[in-house]
Design brief:
Elements lengths: L5 E4 L5 E8 L4 E9 L9 H23 L8 E7 L3 H18 L2 E6 H13 L5 E5 L4 E6 L3 E6 L5 H11 L6 H9 L11 E2 L2 E2 L2 H12 L4 H27 L3 E5 L6 H14 L2 E4 L9 H10 L26
Parallel strand pairs: 1-4, 4-5, 6-11, 11-12
Antiparallel strand pairs: 1-2, 2-3, 6-7, 7-8, 9-10
Bound molecules: adenosine monophosphate (AMP) and magnesium ion.
Length: about 325
């Protein structure tokens, strides 16, 4: 190995991750992480920050071990500047800055959503897709023109958050998505509100209704099944319109909710019907992880940055991009 540009990262939200990307070999060398979870309650920002403080050294050590490297082999540090929960972002930023000072390394703050999009391209080979970005905190249909443009988005809560909220209310714990998916396997359809407004989607009314129905005694399994079918159909309707409008030939599903097999299946069916290609990011790179931040740092390695602030509300369409290809 020579002239390796290796980038280390920290993370975004409930996950503290450290990834190492090797520029010369275009390889992900490590992707260690530790995710904050609960059995019953939801995600509390200060508890997430406490979790991150407790695990950061351990996760860094794991990543270095996985890559068979030491900090002396690292050339650049990237961290999530935003969007995300401020207390969690601060822990990550401080850790990145401390390491950068100690090892005299360049440091770059990247946009968490752009990192999700780019790792999706890196892993799947998609060229210029409609990005269907569905995570815990954000749900957006994005296309790249001169900048990233948000074609449509969730107006109230994100799709991942909708699953998390419903799961919390019915006592399934956090994160809710995988638990809802498991329960849905035994469910049948009950009607829930379907809410597409122009190019945007709104999940809050659906969750409220599902919780009401749960309190009236409708089976959890049926509600989980219907919640999935309804939310995913709404998102696919918007993605389909984006495809027609932007004349793209690919759709790429990314973000933590891309872990849903049912969602992937529904996306593949819609794309087959339209004669376009469906891509889903591999499971290991669907949710938040360090590798995507490391990779994004590497893509932006030539950018000079003087201030290392956090930007908890940094939208993807505010990012000054370079479209690398
Ligand atoms: P992220 O914010 O990108 O890390 O994604 C986390 C979100 O993905 C959480 O809201 C999870 O509930 C959701 N999620 C994870 N796995 C699944 C799944 N199999 N089905 C639906 N949502 C999921
Ligand atoms: Mg994320």
């Amino acid at each position: 190995m020579f002239l390796a540009s290796r980038v280390l990262h920290s993370t975004g939200r409930d996950t503290f991750g450290v990834g190492i990307f090797e520029g010369s070999g275009q390889r992900i060398l490590a992707n260690a992480r530790d995710t904050f979870t609960t059995k019953e309650g939801g995600m509390i920002p200060n508890e997430v920050a406490k979790h991150h403080r407790e695990v950061k050294e351990k996760v860094l050590a794991q990543a270095l071990e996985e890559a068979k490297l030491t900090m002396k082999d690292i050339d650049l540090i990237a961290y999530t500047q935003g969007p995300g929960l401020a207390p969690a972002l601060l822990v990550e930023r401080d850790f990145a800055v401390t390491l950068a000072q100690e090892y005299k390394l360049k440091i770059i703050g990247v946009n968490h959503i752009v990192a999700h999009l780019e790792i999706g391209l890196f892993c799947t080979g998609a060229q210029d897709p409609i990005f269907l970005f569905c995570s815990g905190a954000n749900t957006q249909v994005i296309v790249h023109e001169d900048k990233y443009r948000v074609f449509g988005e969730a107006l109230s809560i994100a799709v991942g958050n909708a699953f998390d909220k419903f799961a919390r209310e019915i006592g399934l714990g956090f994160p809710g998505g995988p638990k809802v998916e498991e329960m849905a396997k035994k469910g049948k359809y009950v009607e829930l509100p379907y809410s597409v407004k122009g190019m945007d989607v709104d999940f809050s009314g659906i969750v409220t209704r599902a919780i009401q129905l749960y309190k009236k005694g409708i089976a959890k399994e049926d509600l989980c099944f219907s919640l999935q079918e309804t939310c995913f159909s709404m998102l696919l309707e918007v993605a389909e319109r984006a495809l027609a409008h932007c004349e793209k030939k690919e759709v790429l599903l990314i973000g933590g909710v891309a872990a849903s097999k049912r969602f992937s299946e529904m996306l593949a069916a819609m794309c087959a019907q339209r004669g376009v290609t469906a891509y889903t990011v591999p499971l290991a790179y669907a949710g938040d992880q360090g590798a995507m931040i490391a990779y994004q740092g590497w893509l932006e390695r030539e950018r000079a940055q003087k201030e290392f602030d956090i930007n908890p509300k940094w939208r993807v369409d505010e990012v000054e991009t370079f479209w690398k290809k």
